[in-house]
Fold:
Amino acid sequence: MTTERRIDPFTGRSVLVAPGRFGLGGVRPAGPPEPSDARCPFCPGNEADTEATIARWPDEGAWQVRVVANRYPVVAPGYEGAPGRHEVVIESPLHEADLADLDEAHLAGLLRVWRARVAALEADPSIAAVLLFRNRGRRAGSSQPHPHGQIAATSWVPAEVALRFARAEAHRAAHGEPLAVSVLREELEGPRVLRSDTEIASFCPYAPSRPFEVRFAPRAPGAFADASDPALAALAAHLSTAARALRAATSVRDHNLVLRLPPARVRGEAASWHLELLPRTGGDAGYELAGGEMVVVVAPERAAERLRSA
Ligand SMILES: [Zn+2]
Structure:
């Protein structure tokens, strides 16, 4: 077993693929956090416990997905130095459901709500970037067991978003095509593909930041706000497959989902997006803190093999 250093083309950061370290670390307790009291604010019937509804799906009848303002925002309109908007996407009326439990039609509905919120927030001239993510389980930073995601829209471009966009633009200038297109072409020829169709490809990326990381990318570049219904339906199918495979192939339940978006209002082929499913097995330790680069104990080629056969 050796350690291989790979460069993540999207950040320029090194990733250390180190299968020899498998089994080390991972000491923090996993699983959903304990609710702070018996009454869950995200369960149907308790709508008065949250802020007002911003968006919902479907439009009529019982809600399946509901978006509210975050009661404990990181950024908010009145925050001096950190103005912005912070929303919670309640993903299901079912308290115990997780990604792998939600069917494809439900996930497609959820993704259409994401698209509508990203489009609405990006249209606000005071917003510079939109972060969309999901924390599941304590290792992923979740404080609420009911399935939900979050959208933080900031009035500045956060460093990670700025770095990724600058690298993507430099690649486009140098090679005449989007970085996402170059990377996807290579991934589709390689051993890490999980599934691919005319709309979406899912794969374990060459330089992951977590073991069993799965990435979902559109076959044609473009803004997430402009993604078509068929593209979102395909993304829902890929996400469902990957979540179920991950559940079958590993004991890892805690994860983050991160939707990688360029700064707000970037459109066309400069606006490539992708979605990352990041299983969380343990904490970032001293090497990661000191070096700012990740040590990954499962090679993505091996992860893809396991997930494909799950
Ligand atoms: Zn609940």
Remarks:
- The mean pLDDT is 91.
- DSSP finds six helices and 13 strands in the chain.
- The CA atoms of residues 78 and 239 lie 36 Å apart.
